[in-house]
Structures are given as C-alpha cells and as structure tokens.
Amino acid sequence: MSEDFKLDATIRNDAGKGASRRLRRLAAQVPAVIYGGKKDPQSISVSHNELMKHLVHEAFYSHIINLNVDGKTENVILKDLQRHPSKPVVLHADFLRIDKTTKVHTHVPIHFINEAVSIGVKTQGGKVVHNLTQLDIVCLPHNLPEFIEVDLMDVEVGQILHISDLKLPNGVSSADLLKGDDHNLAVVTVQKPKGGADTEEEA
Known about the structure:
The chain has helices spanning about 15-25, 50-55, 120-125, 195-200, and strands at about 5-10, 30-35, 40-45, 65-70, 70-85, 90-95, 105-115, 125-130, 135-140, 150, 160, 175, 185-190.
C-alpha cells in the first residue's frame, strides 16, 4: 500500500441545498460528510481544488485519507462522490471513518495486463470483454491494495475468469464470494472472433 493521503477539512454548521450551493459558488468548497464508527455524522467542507488534485490519483479512491478537520485528524476512506453531470465539478463527497483494527468493505480498481499478447487475442483473434472494472473487497485498512491485477497472458478464446480465479493479496477477501458461490461473478472473458474457426469448420 502506498502512503496515506492528506486532506484539510472544515466543520460545516449550515445545512440544506441553498447553503451547499453557496459554499460551492462563493467559497470554492465541496460540501461533504464523515460518518461511521462510534461518532455521529459530521458535516464538513473541503477545498474543491485540493480534492480535484487528489482525484487524479487512482489510489485516492481506495486508500486511507488523513482528514484534518479543524486541527483534529480522522482516518477515513472515500466512500461516495457526486459529480456534476456535464462539468468537471464535484458536488458532494462522503467519507467513512475507519478503525485500523476493524475490517472495511470498499472497492478497488481492476488492472488487466497482457491483453494484447494473450493467447486468445494474439493467436486466436478473440476480443477481450471486461465484465467488471472494480472489485468489492473486505480487509483491514493496512491491507488495502491500490488495485487488483489480472494477468490475461494464458486466457484463451471462450474462457471466462471469475472472481474465484483472481489472486488476491494476503488479507484481502472478495465481498461477493463471502456471500456464497452464487455470487462468483464473471470478471473478464475472451470472445470468439466473428466468422472465426467454428464458422469455418461448419462451412
């Protein structure tokens, strides 16, 4: 896991849509909330510019954030983000408090490697189809991975990789598999090429 991220925040006492709009427009701040743990939810605001700088880093979405709230540090992870539908603007953010001794349920991106040189693509002319681009996981905060890597080198045409086929880091579990085998979702497959070998054999 890489270094924790740091972000400054200010306690927000005003509530409502009008107050949130003024905060975004006049102060360039993003209304947000911290929840979870043994404390009550706390309304806060964070700098829009600072938040946007962090959001360009993929790891920010799954790593521990040291949130400095008026001089007091909270360990949190980014749980939800509301963006403007057409502008590069963040409208609201949700942060979940974490305890470093308590497992968290979050999601991390999936990185697919060796797609172009996989057997199914390079040799058999297939096409890679991503069924999932992120994975729901459960782990202790210090085990949070930046991403889950899936190597497609030996995947052939028609083959499907499910969650159970993934090699997860030590201490990391799939939230879906914890629900049962019927939640063993397809992650990626290599589809047969159109007009491929099967069609030629039938002809």
